[in-house]
Amino acid sequence: MNVNVHVRAGSSLFYFGELVSCLKRRSTQPRVFIYRCRGPESCVCGGLHTAMSGSTSPPPSVEAVGAEGCYPPGYKPFKPEEHGLERGFRCKVPQEVLLKLLAGLEPDQADGTGKAGDQASEFGQQLTGPRLGVGMDSCVIPLRHGGLSLVQTTDFFYPLVEDPYMMGKIACANVLSDLYVRLWVHGWIKRLLPLCACMAQDRERVMPLMIRGFRDAAEEGGTSVTGGQTVVNPWIIIGGVASVVCQPNEFIMPDGAVPGDVLVLTKPLGTRVAVNAYLWIDQPEKWNRVKLVVTKEEVKEAYQEAMFSMATLNRTAAGLMHKFQAHAATDVTGFGLLGHANNLAKQQRNEVAFVIHNLPIIAKMAAISKACGNLFNLLQGTSAETSGGLLVCLPREQAAKFCAEMKSQSSGAGGQGAAGGAWIIGIVEKGDRHARIIDKPRIIEVPPRGSQAANQDNSSPSPAPSPNLS
């Protein structure tokens, strides 16, 4: 089967006040800082500007970047509450709002399950085969010829880690992840790349690193970059459109969960918390909120773990889903674990509910989330993830085997390392097509790779003893 992934620029969503990003390529590479513009409102940057450390010609109307931090001297981070917005405001559209906006795109409902039926058009009635549309991570569209289907997805985001090379890998992994929840893909990638209008002098050094990271991740996934298109944008946005044409028996529809199934998660949670906590190290006001529960070294280790986790392809999990007869799956990204679990539950043919008992979280990130009140809502399951793991519904008798093989394969070169593997996090029971996290879930502290704790075998795939999960 062949895959086309179109990487393009466009309107995207990110944590505006917290992830104003700085990019750097190790200590030997130029550092690029992205921060708020102090120039006129008509500035083309749209409110953001970039500057390369050591540059003799910084952007106009912007103060020089401080030597020790990502922000210029006197910079005041964006606080939503100071602008008449709720404290939890993000440019990420809330899930309930997004679903309302997308409601008009749904075809007529064929039954009462909440699943989309065949389109009322004559063309739609001529198509046969499984169909999946609005609201899920990828769409499945039956084609007119040969009993084939098109599986397609799109995704975008702004840079959120310091390293341009790793940012390229994360972007590719994130785009491909929406296909991995359906099938084990091979083929090629076409790239549409935004060039930042505000960094004409610096992009020749930064963009090749992002391109190389994207290419390397594609090759790791068994694909190759064969071309693309370049556009200009006020700031960097990277994402893409991934497509694959395949036979129906080559992909898994996300609607087959049955009571008694087990829920498995293939990457730890807490990437957003780790990225933000890392930025807070140089922001005393915010660091003071968490310094009693975590050290700077622990935050740096968690940040590195989050970065490598986000850059890890979900390809291994995709292959094992087919081997162990998975009934349904989705990837955990912008709406958090609970948001995507709810989305998946609504797609089920059977009247089921997902009950989550365990939360595998990058070590110390749960403590940071608690110290920050309702800023992240990590333990409530709504904290956004980037390029997160797969949430898989597996037959009970297959779940432990899936987890064991995930850990074995992930420990190899390019895998998730000591922190890798998968965790049984819940069960599928009869219900009304929704998901919930129990009142006191078990927190599984996942040690970052390379840490002292990671050398111990703390990543057993089995959850704590429970009458519901035994």
TrEMBL record:
GO terms for cellular component: cytoplasm. One of its GO terms (biological process) is selenocysteine biosynthetic process. InterPro entries: PurM-like_C_dom (IPR010918), PurM-like_C_sf (IPR036676), PurM-like_N (IPR016188), PurM-like_N_sf (IPR036921), SPS/SelD (IPR004536). Residues 259-436 form the PurM-like C-terminal domain. Gene3D superfamilies: PurM-like C-terminal domain. It catalyses: hydrogenselenide + ATP + H2O = selenophosphate + AMP + phosphate + 2 H(+). Residues 137-239 form the PurM-like N-terminal domain. Its EC number is 2.7.9.3. Keywords: ATP-binding, Kinase, Nucleotide-binding, Selenium, Transferase. GO terms for molecular function: ATP binding; selenide, water dikinase activity. It is an enzyme of class 2 (transferase). The keyword Nucleotide-binding applies. Residues 439-470 are annotated as: Disordered. Synthesizes selenophosphate from selenide and ATP. This is selenide, water dikinase. It comes from Anabas testudineus (Climbing perch). The lineage of its organism: Eukaryota, Metazoa, Chordata, Craniata, Vertebrata.
